[in-house]
Predict the structure of glucan endo-1,3-beta-D-glucosidase.
Amino acid sequence: MSDVHYQSLDMQNAAEKQAKSGKPSPKVIGSIVGLIVLIAIGVTVGVIVSKNNSKEHKSTASSGSSNSSTSGGGSSTTNPNDPSVFTKDERLHRSFYGMAYTPEGSLPDYGCSNSLAGVIKDIQLLSQLTGRIRLYGADCNQTALVLEAIKQTKVDMQVFIGNYVVEGDPTAYERQRDVIKSALQTYGVDHVAGITVGNEFMLNYVVGHNSNDANSAIADEGAAILTANIADTRSMLASLNLPKAIPVGNSDAGSYFNKQVMLAIDYGLSNVHAWFANTTIDAASSWVTTFFEETNVAPAALLPNKPKMYIAETGWPTDSKDISNKNNGAADASVPNLQIFIDKFVCQANTAGIPYFFFEFVDEEWKDIKYGGVEGHWGIFNKDRTLKSLTLPDCSSP
Ligand SMILES: *[C@@H]1O[C@H](CO)[C@@H](O)[C@H](O)[C@H]1NC(C)=O
Ligand SMILES: *[C@@H]1O[C@H](CO)[C@@H](O)[C@H](O)[C@H]1NC(C)=O
Ligand SMILES: *[C@@H]1O[C@H](CO)[C@@H](O)[C@H](O)[C@H]1NC(C)=O
């Protein structure tokens, strides 16, 4: 995993060099968009999940009356023996189509320190925001932990599982495929909406081979690795004789979808970050929807298999480790600006039927340590699961 992130940083540097060397072409912006996601592992699926209303939780205490603004977390288990009994935070609403999620401590390099208790707490919170989450990878047992937490909390939640493919290390794909298979055998597929094979694989591959074209000859060599893994995942799913078809998809930076990959998937998850395209905060939301439509949705619709496209990540950072990275040239990383982005994007995207995974749930400290800049500061919640000073929208999500 560290290699992957290291490569991502190299790519970021390469893209920054590109950006500085000339006027920003859409491709450069695309690579910048791609950079964005240093994140961990990724998965997605293009399945339509039925939304639910929020009646599924059995709340004992009257919901919303907790002192969560000072106590932190926004929910609390009221019966330690039954995680399905928890108080809800009246500040939270199931207004988000989906949310990007990596259980804390789910990277082998960081010792696999995740825990079922931590994931249960997160799922209790996430279920108050959305009915869908996407994971980035499957290391450190995170697939089983998430499905177990959904089982115990009894929340209405669909998961796009992830398999983080690593160039030059086929065992990474195989290891994750095997634990995903095992999790599906244990938990079934009621809460599984898809399996995303690869996260920013093409971005890393293309930039790592000194190209900037996701459809160059060298890019097609990388795509062949990915399409073989996608086919293998389909075989694994077929071998399980599952009661429903599980879509298989891929996640990448917005400008790095290779045509061969697109032809192999049921759905694509695209990272679209206005921050890295240096928009103003006021222009950010419309930039995201326009970029996504033009760069991802329209081209996908022209393919015979018509993969369903989702925004894999979009959001706005609230802070930076260092002052120099605290603005994108046009707007600051700040909580008020995240508020503006949420206000302009979330309910409008729901109304427009744009499927998206908001980025992201909580601040991720390991990214702050490893990458600096704004990387660790995209959360709606702080790393301790207290809500930032935000007013979350109350609208229905499809
Ligand atoms: C909530 O906070 C108020 C004021 O800080 C305090 O008086 C009250 O005891 C708290 N209630 C609970 C349940 O913690
Ligand atoms: C993975 O997580 C599940 C659910 O908590 C647990 O039952 C299983 O023992 C875990 N496996 C490992 C290897 O930790
Ligand atoms: C965005 O702004 C930063 C500095 O604020 C600059 O380094 C970068 O090249 C800019 N990117 C684009 C695409 O204009």
